[in-house]
Every structure is written in structure tokens, then in C-alpha cells.
Amino acid sequence: MAIRWAPVLACLAVGALGDVTPAEDFDPLQFVDVLIGSTNAGNVFPGASQPYGMAKAVADTNSSSNQGGFTLDGSPVQGYSVLHDSGTGGQPSLGNFPFFVYPSCPGDDINLCDFPKKTRVKHGFFKPENVKAQPGYFSIALDIGVQAEMTTTQHTALFRFTLPNGTGANGTYPFVMQDLSDLSDSRQDNGTVSVDAQTGRISGGAKFLPSFGSGSYTAYFCTDFSGPAIQDSGIYVNSRATTEAKDLTISRSINGYPLPGGAFVRFQDATNPILARTGVSLISTERACANAEAEIPDFNFDSVTKAAKDAWKAKLSPITVSSGGGVAQDLITNFYSGVYRTMVNPQNYTGENPLWKSDEPYFDSFYCLWDSFRSQIPFLVILDPVAVAQIIRSLIDTYRYEGWLPDCKMSLCRGYTQGGSNADNVLVDAYLKGISDGIDWNVGYQAIVKDAEVEPYDWATHGRGGLDSWKSLGYIPVQDLDYKGFGTMTRSISRTLEYAYNDFCISLMSQAMNNTADQEKYLDSSENWKNVFYPDQTSILPTGVDTGFKGFFQAKYLNQTWASQDPLTCSNIDTTGIACSLQNTGRETFEDSTWEYGFFVPQNQGDLISIYGGPSEFVRRLDYLHDQNITNIGNEPSFLTVFQYHYAGRPGKSAARSHFYIPRYFNPTPGGLPGNDDSGAMGSFVAFSMMGLFPNPGQNVYLITPPFFESVNLTHPTTGKTATIRNVNFDPSYEAIYIQSATLNGEPYTKNWLDHSFFLEGKELVLTLGTTESTTWGTAVKDLPPSTGKYVGFNGTSSNQRLRGRSALKYRSDIWKMDAFAHS
Ligand SMILES: *[C@@H]1O[C@H](CO)[C@@H](O)[C@H](O)[C@H]1NC(C)=O
Ligand SMILES: *[C@@H]1O[C@H](CO)[C@@H](O)[C@H](O)[C@H]1NC(C)=O
Ligand SMILES: *[C@@H]1O[C@H](CO)[C@@H](O)[C@H](O)[C@H]1NC(C)=O
Ligand SMILES: *[C@@H]1O[C@H](CO)[C@@H](O)[C@H](O)[C@H]1NC(C)=O
Ligand SMILES: *[C@@H]1O[C@H](CO)[C@@H](O)[C@H](O)[C@H]1NC(C)=O
Ligand SMILES: *[C@@H]1O[C@H](CO)[C@@H](O)[C@H](O)[C@H]1NC(C)=O
Ligand SMILES: *[C@@H]1O[C@H](CO)[C@@H](O)[C@H](O)[C@H]1NC(C)=O
Ligand SMILES: *[C@@H]1O[C@H](CO)[C@@H](O)[C@H](O)[C@H]1NC(C)=O
Ligand SMILES: *[C@@H]1O[C@H](CO)[C@@H](O)[C@H](O)[C@H]1NC(C)=O
Ligand SMILES: *[C@@H]1O[C@H](CO)[C@@H](O)[C@H](O)[C@H]1NC(C)=O
Hints:
- The chain is of the alpha+beta class and 824 residues long.
- It is 22% helix and 22% strand.
- It is built from 18 helices and 37 strands.
- Helix 7 crosses helix 8.
- One 2-acetamido-2-deoxy-beta-D-glucopyranose (NAG) binds at residues 557, 559, 561.
- One 2-acetamido-2-deoxy-beta-D-glucopyranose (NAG) is lined by residues 557, 559, 561.
């Protein structure tokens, strides 16, 4: 049965079969599967959280892929903890101060319970069907009979432990312990924990290391109990416990392995569940207790769960997709689950920042902007602009106090920069799309210009390296001479490409701020990508077969001679095992090949297409990238390449390509992500792709493809205006995925892209679909998205003719000369 819904109360919608369904039934949470990505290296946090919440409660397994805490890969549970990140690579993040719960200790002797993670984990096995995960709620029943349910407010988790019937009888006392470890055993000197003999309150704190950054952070917690009466309490160190001592200060380690230690409380019975409320803070133990008392005064598990669900419902409700036309239910789940994950991270640590005093918002867990600039933060720009304004204010405030915008940030620490200064792209994207609420854009502008102009001494964690060479040579040389600052001396190709795009974004903001001098300066350096294009570079497959493609980006020495990195190095089919991450032995591209980076010129697809021999050759190269498995869709640089056919006048091929990847590589199952979710980056790729508009991030441009649904509505949370994308001839088998014609607000519309006014003004885009690629819709040069260079093209343009030309460039869409592309 086809049911349609609408978010507006009292609005009745007629389904495809003529049935009438009350609209207020619509609950987007029924379509959120939070367990997507909980195995197969998705590394998502699948537990209970509020949108952007700091408290994130889940059961932690001992999996080697437990970066997000819980996994569904058969690994047992080693604890239940309150602080987490989501989707990250690097070391497992957070997971501090985990609980473990036993129905009782053997013979009721506390010294016979297993305390260290390594030994207690053998009591943590469970069956997958005993896991229940929903937005704001997580429950798991272990085979030892302990059920742990959890829910959260912003800084506090509430656990409900239900123990086997009979626990407590005959003096077998339920045992709850909480220890001073974290997921990656990074605790430093000195951890402290205390337990109050009267109330059972356990509180403490310890210093830990961030998972992908420098420095350290100190976290605090405060746990109170409700339910059964307390029998006794104490502390434990290593594998021994005592009720005599109530306070412990513990050193880091014995023989390199962090010394297990913590506190415990025993209860007299378990006829009622044991409620444990844990407040967390990055300021102090007192603050952790105050957070808990203020946010969950009454230990009411059901009302806290309902509040968390309501918060998620409010966040997801502005976007509705039609369930009509026979669309498969699991595609709706795929979509909303992706949307959900865009708001798990970053985390709102406002009021919890010990590093500086400020009234500005403070957000953390940008993990990393290299990942999230591409579609996650642009997605929040359309769905949650109020949060984006706070996120931008926080980034700018970080610049004020630390001198630089962050590129990656977790647990109050500076994370490692992967390429360019990609906060520039994030700020400019938000600026061009009208995000203004309380933001001092003049300081924002200063911050991005500083990235381009001033090299930090430590450019491993912010800003850019190699700026002298960048300015004198126009590229980052391999084996650069750089004595002004320090960072990993690799990735010269991808850094050149990213710096060029960062400069382009700065140029766009300069233009919007009427700063013509800066506009031209940064437009000029945005062309630096041309300096690392080596027209004679060929590419041979590992099998020895020549790909036939010629001309790739290549590393260049200071003396301007070419180095030689194989174009397939760091690609999905690279079998050499060479490090492509941040190792000092790494390569000249970060986590991807020059095949892939060969398309990373988001500012100037016109010239890139010419260099590659015109639109047909460009399309053939893009097809080869995808069809030969060279691209890794599980990593963010691939995202835009799915849609770049638009720039060659082939929007139909972008649509086909997005169906090639979704749901094959992104599906609503625990193993359904092709790579780390990276704080929601993969989620946003799914969400944007399925709603039919994909951003070229940093520009006011969305590339149009048909939504995977009959229609999509997005109501702007502050203007209240609803933007609609509607398919005519919707085909749930997705054979009719080619746009034949379109109207925008009722007028014929032939451009294959649109801008953000679509969302701000609540326009309606109607797409008429067919089963074959249209040769007319969105294919003419006048219909292509903007590019700094001209879309010239085919015959008569030698492959490197325009390479060194720095013509007066304008970011305008009216400079194109050709009328139409011939389709091959
Ligand atoms: C997790 O714990 C189980 C049970 O003790 C053990 O067999 C397994 O090797 C552990 N896994 C890891 C990655 O340590
Ligand atoms: C626990 O035992 C009591 C009394 O025998 C019984 O009423 C109750 O239903 C049992 N609870 C469960 C969950 O089995
Ligand atoms: C408690 O002890 C009594 C007497 O020793 C025994 O009959 C009863 O089965 C025990 N109950 C449980 C739940 O072990
Ligand atoms: C840890 O605590 C011990 C005992 O109070 C003290 O001697 C030592 O200096 C402390 N270490 C640090 C790093 O604070
Ligand atoms: C979108 O909004 C329009 C106008 O309010 C409404 O008629 C339609 O049912 C909505 N569609 C969805 C999928 O919510
Ligand atoms: C972040 O937290 C602050 C302080 O609790 C709150 O005022 C603000 O609304 C939160 N922001 C978002 C986007 O939830
Ligand atoms: C830039 O100039 C235009 C046209 O004079 C004006 O409308 C706009 O407000 C100016 N923008 C800024 C940021 O000064
Ligand atoms: C340029 O520098 C590289 C690396 O030091 C060196 O191998 C090459 O021979 C130099 N080329 C010229 C022409 O000096
Ligand atoms: C593409 O690569 C993936 C692993 O990255 C592999 O599972 C798949 O079989 C490959 N497909 C082809 C067509 O080579
Ligand atoms: C380009 O030139 C080739 C050979 O000169 C010719 O066969 C082809 O038709 C031309 N293509 C276009 C699009 O003009």
C-alpha cells in the first residue's frame, strides 16, 4: 500500500491508491536504523545520544574496530560507557569510565569478580537478537543475564540494569563497578576515583590522550544510583578489591598496560532494576555532578528516553520523503539513517571548554573537516542552519583563542591535518548560503586569509605548510625545503590541489565581500593545480595493461623537475601496500590516487575537461575510474566524482552512477557502509544523493539528479518555507532515472544545477523522468554549473594548451561559448 505523509498537522494526503492517511502519523524515527555501520569498519556510534550530544552511551565491545564503542561483529562487551565519537578511524576515541555489572560475585566474594577489561570481557557475550538500538535508546542483554538499557540528555546518561530473577537472594549481592579506563587504554597519571559509603556516589576523573591528535584532555564523571538499597562499596586495583578504602589515586601503568582500577557498589537485591546516572564534564567532577542533577533530577528512565526521541524527531521532521509510488521501505530507512548520522557529531561542548573563557558556542569532534566539508556540513546548512551558525561561531572562536582554525579536532585537542586548510571551505560554504546568525564574518574572513598567508610553526595540526614554495613556485614541492614550520612532508600533490581549492573558496568570499584585490589574488592562486599537471604521465594497470589515459597530476621537485608516483598508487586497486596516510614514509597523495585526485578541481571543471581532451574523454576517464574499481567510494574524495558528469553535460550519467553505489555500497544493514562513516560523512553522502541534490561544497551550487523517492520536502526551520523536489514518472525499479525536462516554480528549467535560494525561498523543482538519457536537458553549455575556466573543448584544444595561462578568471556562468555537447 502506498501511503504519503506530510509533517503538517491537519493536512490529509491522498495515497496512490486513493486511500486517505492522517498526516500526523509520520514519525521519521521508525526509519532510522542506528546499527547501520556497526560492523565492517563503519565504526559508527550506534548508542543513545541527543543530537550533537556530549553524552553518548553504549556498550563497548573489545573489537579491534570498536572506535565507536559497540560493534556487531561477534566481539563481547567489556563495559558500558558515556563518552564516544562516531565513525572515526585512528585510535578508538573516548569510552572513558566504563561500567561493568555482575548479578553477583562468585560465592559473593568480591575478590572473585573479574575487574580488568581483559578478564571481565569473557562475561560479555551476547546474542545479536538481544540488542535493541533506536535514536536516544540502546539496550543489550548479555548471556550472563544482565540487561543494560541506556538513554541520555546532553551531558548525562541514565542506565537501567535489570538482573536475573533471584539475584540478591541468600546474600548474593548485585555488583556494579566503574573504572578509570578508556577504549584505547590511554590513561595518564593520575586517575582518581571515590565512592561515597552513604549514597554510593562514584566520582572521579583522569587524563587521557586524543585518538588522532596531539596533547591530552582530562575528563570527569559523577555517578549516582537509584533503586535497591546499598549493601556496601569500595575500590579495586588490578584484580583485588576492598570495602575498607573509598578513594583511589592510580598511576598510569604496570609494564605498559594501564593499571585497572575503579570503584564498586553492591546492592542488597535486584527485585527492581538498578538505575545509574552518570554526568560527564571536561571541567570538574563537581560540574559532572551538577550536570547530572540538573538534567536528570528524578531518574525517570522513560521520560528521559522520550525526551531524547522527541529531540531527534524534531531534528528529522523538517525533511519528508514520499513513501508512495512503490518505493522500497529499506531505501527510506537508508535515507533517514544517513540523515540521522549527520547530527551525531560534531558534539556540543558549549560550557564544557576549559581551554578559554568565552560566551561563544563551543563544538568539538570535527573528525575531520577534510571529511565533513564535502557534504556533511553542507547538509546541515540545509537541514539545521541554526546549529551550523553555532558550529561556525565555535570554529571562529577557536581561531580567536588558538590563532588558527582547526582542521580536525577531538576531545579538546588539535587533530592532524590531512590536506588543506579545509575549514576555509566550510566557512565559505556557510557564508555564501546566508548563514549569519551571530557570526562575526569579518573575523571569519581574517581566519581564512591567515590560513593562506601565514604558515604556523606546527602545520601538522592547523594551517598550511610550505607557504614559501607555494607563493614562489605555485605548488608544494615533493621534498620541500621548509624551515619555518613543521609537519609531515608528504602529500605534495594532494596538498597543492587542496590549497588551490581553499584559495578559490577565499576568493569567492572576497568577491561577496566586495574585496576585489583579494578576489583576484586568490582566484589567481586557485589555478595552481595546473602547475602539477604532467601531460606525459601514463598509467599502467598492475596486470601490465596500459589504461590508455595520458596526463595526470604528478609530484614536482623544488627544481621544477617531475618526480614519479604511479597514478594508481593509493588507489583501491593498489596492491603495493605503501602507506598513504600520515606516515613520514607516506606518498604524495593522501589516502587516494592521482587517478582520483585527478578530478579534484571543483573550481575549474571547464579547464580540467579541456585538459583531459574534452567532455567525451573526461566522461570516459570518469567511467574508467568508477568501473575499474580505482575509486574507493568508502572514502570522501570519491563523493564528488559520482556527480562530476554534470560538468561534461551528462547529468544522466551522474544519476546512473549514484544508483550504481546506492544501495549496493550503502545499505541499511550493520555492514552496510563501505568505509568509516567519519562522523557522519557517509551518512550525508547517502542523504544528499538520495534527495537528488549534491553540493559542490564551498560553492553555491547543487547538482540535480532525480530523488530516489516520488518527492522530497524540506522545510526551512527559520523561514518555514518548504522546498519540494518532485519526480513525474517515478519508477521504483529505477530504470526511469533520466531527467527529460524540468520546471522550477512552474517555469521550464534546463540548468543541471541550482543554488541555495531553492531552500531559502522554498521553491518547487519538478523533474520529468524517462528511461533513456536526454540529449537536451542539462546538456548545453549554458546549462552547466559554474567554472572559473571556460567550457571549451573538443577538437582543436591540445591537452596542455591552457596549462600555464592565468587568464583573467571570473566565477561566472555566462562566459561559456559553446552551445551543446555531442554525446558519444
Ligand atoms: C575479546 O575477548 C574475547 C573473550 O575473552 C577474546 O576471545 C578475544 O580475543 C578478544 N578480542 C580482542 C580483539 O582482544
Ligand atoms: C521474578 O520472580 C517473581 C516472583 O517469583 C515473579 O513475580 C516475576 O514475574 C519474575 N520476573 C521475571 C522477569 O521473571
Ligand atoms: C536460598 O537458600 C535456600 C536455603 O539454603 C534454598 O532453599 C533456596 O533455593 C535458595 N534460593 C536461591 C534463589 O538460590
Ligand atoms: C600522582 O600522585 C602521586 C601521589 O599523590 C604523586 O606523587 C605524583 O607526583 C602524581 N603524579 C602526577 C603526574 O601528578
Ligand atoms: C510536500 O509538501 C506538499 C505541500 O505542502 C504536500 O502536498 C506534499 O504531500 C508533501 N510531500 C511530502 C513527501 O511530505
Ligand atoms: C549547544 O549547547 C548550548 C548550551 O547548552 C545550547 O544553548 C545550544 O542551543 C546548543 N546548540 C545546539 C545546536 O543544540
Ligand atoms: C557589496 O556590494 C554590493 C553592491 O554595492 C552590496 O549590495 C553589498 O551589500 C556589498 N557587500 C558587502 C559585504 O559589503
Ligand atoms: C632535481 O631534483 C631532484 C631531486 O633532488 C633530482 O633527482 C634531479 O636530478 C634534479 N634535476 C635537475 C635537472 O637538477
Ligand atoms: C572492487 O573492490 C572491492 C574491494 O575494495 C571488491 O570487493 C570488488 O570485488 C571489486 N570489484 C571489481 C569489479 O573488481
Ligand atoms: C573531432 O575531430 C575528429 C577527427 O578530426 C572527428 O572525427 C570528430 O567528428 C570531431 N568531433 C567533434 C565533436 O567535432
